[in-house]
Design goal:
heterotrimer, A: 266 residues, alpha/beta, 4-stranded antiparallel sheet, 10 strands, 41% helix, 23% strand, globular, C: alpha/beta, D-Maltodextrin-Binding Protein, domain 2
Chain lengths: 266, 204, 291
């Protein structure tokens, strides 16, 4: 098993998010994410998975319960400092159009006041890590990159300040299947190499099965089941999980293929 | 053309006065419009109120506004600047707010999630991305101010308006033409310069 | 032994001493049409001639701005018309006769604004209707009553305002009846005389002291029912300024009786007509020729 020294341990205790109108997006979630674990929040739209993700970096404040990062209550931390220590990558990427790729990737180190040489070295290292040749991509602007390349740059930007956790909200949803498969392989490889804790939101079952150390199935704002991909497939806990995961040919094929990829590396 | 050629010094002086009026008004107006524009972009209800007030000022006939300002501040260039700043607000605030509202929500979400403070987000992401729209507003406001600044002549504040109005009083076509052409030249120059700046800022 | 501080103090006191000996200039204002500029120059040069330091702030954009500037002390005096003072500033109606009206205006200005009126001039720059001698002869036009009756055969040239103003066409129709023109053509006031002389219109709205009247020998129709108020011009001065410089009255009052309709028309003509002389020059020559 890869040494999880670089990952944060995230605990959610009784976390709930209720909006002023009374609607509850998240209800009573208890979840422990081990350091260095690749956790996938899986569910249909409206299941509360994105909302739950955002409680971890306090983009959304829980109305109930608490979030602990490495044992510290997130509410006691300055939110801006917290977020600079946690990577954040979203589906639309949100690269800053007025900055070069290098400028984008180096943005958090720049906010943290790193000196320029250190930022430049880090940018090059990260671009290489995500498969973008720095010599080619450093000085380009986001509009000059394809969708897949932009997403890679987004991931590089999220990892720039060496965060102990990385939050990803359906990051590969906007690219085609071939690019998506390649990006999925990349993020697995990167996570293995860095040992960062990743919390990854998706509605795509195949993606979840492919990437996760542990899957958290969500529906209606609560957790329906947590477990390894094999466990979810083999013993779905209830109809919700069953309906979501479904025993269809594609899933089974992935379930069978997966052990060959991931198991040996544990 | 004859007046233009016969009195290049006078035209240059008045054009200089005109340019100074416009530039100082623009600078002050921008300093006020930027925070107002941010407010209008961020808070819709306060924003509607602000825009309503500015629009009301904009539609006041200039003669009436000037009379009130003269009663408050007297004659001369500073009063003219106050009037021009007031008129420029409408154009600038609206363009700045629209520019800010047009910034990609994904970029804003990413900025928040990556750990920008609100101020850093404004200065490093929102304003730079809104820059093309802001420059557009500055360009429109500048050309408008060059035209409006002719009223400075009414309150003894100099500028090209005095040449044009003298020409109108005396039915002196060369004077009217000279003053108007000089103003048009200023407007063209300003427009061209600002378009260049706009293009440079759109690199991103 | 004088220290550096003493020397600096003495140096600082010099400009103050110089200022104490000099007099702040009297600021002369004016509105922004030819006759106003001419009168502003006449006043300014007359005051200079009397030994007062003068500063010109001419060409101001209208009555409101001029009054605001005067009340604030940005200017010390400017030429104003009795008719304008009455209708626009005081918003009152004329009294029984010209003398009573003037007395009313003077006392109201002193009471409300602390401003005083010096002697008015006989010139009457009132609204009028003018025509060419040829048209006047052909249609028998001498008074506005004549015009009221003959209007259906004639074309009028006017600015758009005149057609709507209560003291414009509607006022004429109310006071005289008639005035149903065959045609009304809208002309800018800079071009109206050209239109009249070219025969595009038969009658134009004019001001009593327009230069073109004497230049083109136009006939101004008599206001036999006295509809239009009198517009005599006089200097309006801040009382404080007059108290500080009583010579102002002595310098400007002698000017008043000299400014008759004919004289002012001729002076306006030099500025607006083909010669296109500067108001300052025209004013200067006039003052020189009258001592």
């Amino acid at each position: 098993m890869a040494e999880p020294a670089n990952g944060a341990r995230i605990e959610l205790r009784g976390v709930g998010v209720t909006y002023p109108g009374g609607a509850a997006a998240v209800r009573d979630v208890d979840l422990t994410i081990a350091a260095g674990e690749f956790t996938v929040l899986l569910g249909p739209s409206g299941s509360g998975k994105s909302t739950l993700l955002r409680t971890i970096n306090r983009l959304i404040e829980p109305t109930a319960g608490e979030v602990l990062i490495d044992g510290v209550d997130a509410r006691t931390l300055d939110p801006v400092e917290l977020r600079r220590g946690i990577g954040y990558a979203i589906q639309a990427v949100g690269l800053f159009a007025h900055l070069t790729i290098a400028g984008n990737v180096g943005v958090v180190p720049s906010l943290l006041g790193w000196e320029r040489a250190r930022i430049a070295a880090r940018v090059d290292a990260l671009l290489t890590l995500v498969g973008l040749d720095p010599r080619v991509y450093r000085e380009r602007y986001p509009r000059q990159l394809s969708g897949g390349e932009q997403q890679r740059a987004g991931v590089a930007r999220a990892l720039a300040a060496q965060p102990r956790a990385l939050l990803m909200d359906e990051p590969f949803g906007a690219v085609d299947a071939i690019v998506r498969a390649s990006l999925q392989d990349e993020i697995r490889r990167i996570q293995r190499e860095l040992g960062t804790t990743i919390v990854f939101v998706t509605h795509d079952v195949d993606e979840a099965l492919r990437l996760a150390d542990r899957i958290v199935v969500m529906a209606g704002g609560t957790i329906a089941q947590t477990g390894t991909p094999e466990a979810i497939l083999a013993t779905p806990a209830n109809d919700v999980v069953r309906g979501l995961v479904g025993i269809d040919a594609q899933s089974r094929r992935f379930a069978e293929a997966r052990p060959l990829l991931a198991r040996d590396e544990r | 053309m004859s007046f233009l050629l016969a009195h290049p010094g006078l035209i240059a002086t008045r054009a200089g006065e005109h340019a100074i009026l416009v530039l100082s008004s623009l600078a002050i107006a921008l300093a006020i419009a930027l925070p107002l524009g941010v407010l209008v972009a961020r808070k819709p209800r306060a924003g509607t109120l602000v825009l309503g007030v500015l629009n009301a000022i904009y539609t006041v006939p200039s003669l009436a506004l000037l009379a009130i300002l003269v009663a408050l501040f007297g004659l001369g260039a500073p009063t003219a600047v106050v009037a021009l700043v007031a008129y420029a607000q409408m154009i600038l605030v609206r363009n700045i707010a629209e520019g800010l509202r047009g910034v990609s929500p994904a970029a804003l979400d990413a900025a928040d999630g990556l750990g920008f403070t609100r101020r850093e987000r404004l200065l490093r992401v929102e304003l730079p991305l809104a820059l093309p729209a802001i420059f557009g507003g500055i360009r429109i406001a500048t050309v408008a101010l060059i035209g409006l600044a002719t009223v400075a002549a009414w309150i003894d504040a100099g500028g090209l308006g005095s040449i044009v109005f003298e020409g109108l009083h005396q039915d002196d076509a060369p004077k009217i033409v000279a003053g108007s052409m000089a103003a048009m030249a200023l407007a063209f120059a300003a427009d061209a310069l600002l378009r260049l700046a706009e293009r440079a800022s759109v690199r991103a | 032994m004088p220290t550096r501080a003493h020397l600096l103090g003495a140096l600082a006191a010099l400009p103050l001493a110089a200022c104490a000996g000099s007099v702040p200039p009297v600021a002369v204002g004016s509105k922004n049409f030819t006759e106003a500029l001419l009168l502003g120059e006449l006043y300014a040069q007359a005051l200079s001639g009397a030994g007062l330091p003068v500063r010109r702030r001419l060409d101001l954009g209208g009555t409101d701005i001029a009054m605001a500037a005067l009340r604030r002390g940005e200017i010390d005096l400017y030429p104003e018309y009795t008719g304008t003072a009455l209708l626009v500033v005081l918003k009152a109606l004329p009294r029984a006769d010209a003398a009573a009206t003037f007395a009313f205006i003077k006392s109201e200005y002193e009471r409300r604004y602390d401003l005083t009126w010096l002697d008015p001039a006989p010139m009457n720059d009132t609204q009028a209707l003018a025509t060419t001698p040829a048209v006047a002869a052909r249609f028998g036009l001498r008074t506005l009553s004549d015009l009221a009756a003959r209007a259906p055969q004639l074309r009028l040239g006017a600015v758009p305002e005149f057609v709507k103003r209560s003291d414009g066409l509607p006022g004429l129709q109310r006071a005289y009846g008639g005035f149903a023109f065959k045609e009304i053509r809208l002309v800018d006031f800079g071009l109206k005389y050209a239109a009249l002389l070219a025969g595009d219109v038969d009658v134009v709205v004019a001001f009593g002291t327009d230069g073109a009247i004497v230049a083109d020998k136009l006939v101004v129709l008599t206001d036999d029912k006295h509809l239009f108020p009198q517009y005599h011009v006089a200097p309006v001065v801040r009382r404080a300024t007059l108290a500080a410089h009583p010579q102002i009255a002595a310098a400007l009052n002698p000017l008043a009786p000299l400014l008759t309709d004919g004289v002012v028309q001729a002076l306006n003509e030099q500025i607006d007509g083909p010669q296109k002389r500067e108001p300052a020059d025209v004013a200067g020559d006039f003052l020189k020729s009258h001592g």
